[in-house]
């Protein structure tokens, strides 16, 4: 399983890549593997500020629909429009082209509360 060292993680299997006061959010390799083939990604929260651990969108796979949760409080700046026509990018490249939203981070202190790659790895080893 791929757990990049440059990201922070949540217990709900989202990741955050911080770039200044902005960040990119997606689901982890573990999460996409558990979901199976992703067929639709829905985010209707662009322009809204969403609290940490609140739902910012849903991801639909062949077998199930799951909520996606914000790793930190932030304003949703952009949805990865490529996922509208290619939702499978979440499966193929979860940490790259399969990112879901770009956010403006409201409270940088919340980043410290996220899981390190090592802690996330422990969470997924069961």
Q: What is the number of independent domains?
A: 1
Roughly what percent helix? 10-25%
- Counting DSSP H or I runs of 4 or more residues, the number of helices is 4
Series of H and E elements: EEEHEEEEEHHEH
Short description:
By secondary structure, this protein is of the alpha+beta class. 18% of the residues lie in helices and 35% in strands.
Report on the architecture of this protein.
The chain is an alpha+beta fold and 126 residues long. The chain has a single domain (9-108), classed as OB fold (Dihydrolipoamide Acetyltransferase, E2P) (Beta Barrel). It is 18% helix and 35% strand. It is built from four helices and nine strands, in the order βββαβββββααβα. The protein has helices spanning 29-35, 82-85, 89-92, 117-124, and strands at residues 8-9, 14-19, 22-27, 38-42, 49-50, 55-61, 65-69, 74-79, 101-105. The strands form two sheets. Strands 1-2-3-9-8-5 form a six-stranded antiparallel beta sheet. A three-stranded antiparallel beta sheet has the order 4-6-7. Strand 2 and strand 3 form a beta hairpin. The relative contact order is 0.26.
């Amino acid at each position: 399983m791929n757990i990049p060292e440059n990201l922070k993680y949540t217990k709900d299997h989202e990741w955050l890549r911080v770039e200044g006061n902005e960040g990119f959010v997606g689901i982890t390799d573990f999460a996409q593997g558990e979901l199976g083939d992703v067929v639709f990604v829905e985010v209707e929260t662009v322009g809204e500020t969403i609290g940490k651990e609140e739902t910012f969108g849903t991801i639909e796979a062949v077998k199930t629909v799951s909520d996606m949760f914000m790793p930190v409080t932030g304003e949703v700046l952009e949805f990865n429009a490529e996922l509208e026509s290619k939702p499978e990018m979440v499966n193929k490249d979860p940490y790259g082209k399969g990112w879901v939203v770009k956010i403006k981070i409201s409270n940088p202190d919340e980043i410290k509360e996220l899981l390190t790659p090592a802690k996330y790895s422990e969470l997924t080893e069961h």
